[in-house]
Write a structure and sequence with these properties.
11 strands, 261 residues, alpha+beta
Length: 261
């Protein structure tokens, strides 16, 4: 079973987007479909029974353009697979302590300074946290490397709409070797590109018919642009903030709570 699973919607069912030139379908729009992440006995991006009933939907997997999901997952991959400094890795290995440290209340009279410290302290975690902002109550999860493993942590207990838990996967952790994680990410990119290449060929041969006329030649150009973007995510990782600044900010937050870091 793949870490990242998806099904593309039928071309005939994809509603054209309104553009300055009228209704159209780009390569991105044609990746419309469902997405999910099986993790042991839980599945991320799978709606709960209660929210499906509340919203009156039948699709259990999250629906959106699969390319957008790929961008989020792959965009966090290099950071998630990268080694952490010893002190930060030690904190990441103790998720309860990390969660407690993140829960510090910002003093009302020092909010600007505290915001800056918090951003510096936790930006590394944000780089490892895919965020599907286009979904209501986007799932909360992180890719974190500890030693030779990547840990996928998730906690969706606060993802609630109208009193209903949005996601079936509430809280948990799944562990896999770093090499396996990177391989799953490459496989996701490859499978999506292969399916979209076939989709373009089908459109060109008129084996499928979109609701509007689309230009296969333009789709092929867009296909290569997306291929290049996906390839770019597998380059060497460099943190947004220098690790020494991150560690200093974490130290400040820990001292405020009387904790060690």
């Amino acid at each position: 079973m793949a870490l990242f699973e998806f099904e593309l919607a039928r071309v005939e069912d994809i509603v054209p987007w309104e553009t300055a030139d009228g209704p159209g379908l780009s390569w991105f729009a044609l990746t419309d479909g469902q997405f999910r992440m099986p993790l042991g006995d839980q599945v991320l991006f799978e709606y709960s029974d209660e929210i499906m009933s509340h919203w009156g939907i039948v699709a259990r997997g999250a629906e959106y353009q699969v390319a957008a999901f790929a961008r989020e997952m792959l965009g966090s991959m290099a950071a998630g697979a990268a080694r952490l400094p010893e002190r930060v890795e030690r904190l990441a290995a103790d998720w309860n302590s990390l969660t407690k440290l993140r829960g510090e209340v910002i003093p009302a009279d020092q909010s600007e300074e505290a915001d800056e410290i918090a951003y510096t302290a936790w930006r590394w975690l944000g780089e490892r946290s895919p965020w599907a902002s286009y979904l209501v109550a986007s799932p909360n999860f992180q890719f974190i490397r500890v030693g030779a493993e990547v840990r996928i942590h998730w906690d969706n207990r606060d993802r609630v709409v109208d009193g209903c838990s949005v996601w079936s996967a509430q809280v948990g952790v799944c562990v896999m070797p770093v090499e396996a994680f990177v391989s799953e990410c490459r496989d996701f990119a490859t499978r999506l590109l292969v399916k979209m290449y076939s989709r373009i060929e089908e459109i060109e041969k008129e084996a499928v018919r979109a609701q509007v006329v689309v230009n296969p030649a333009s789709l092929r150009v867009q296909h290569e642009t997306w291929r290049a973007e996906f390839d770019s995510y597998f380059r060497e990782y460099a943190p947004d903030i220098a690790w020494q600044d991150t560690e200093r900010a974490l130290q400040v937050i820990a001292e405020r709570q009387g904790l060690s870091f």
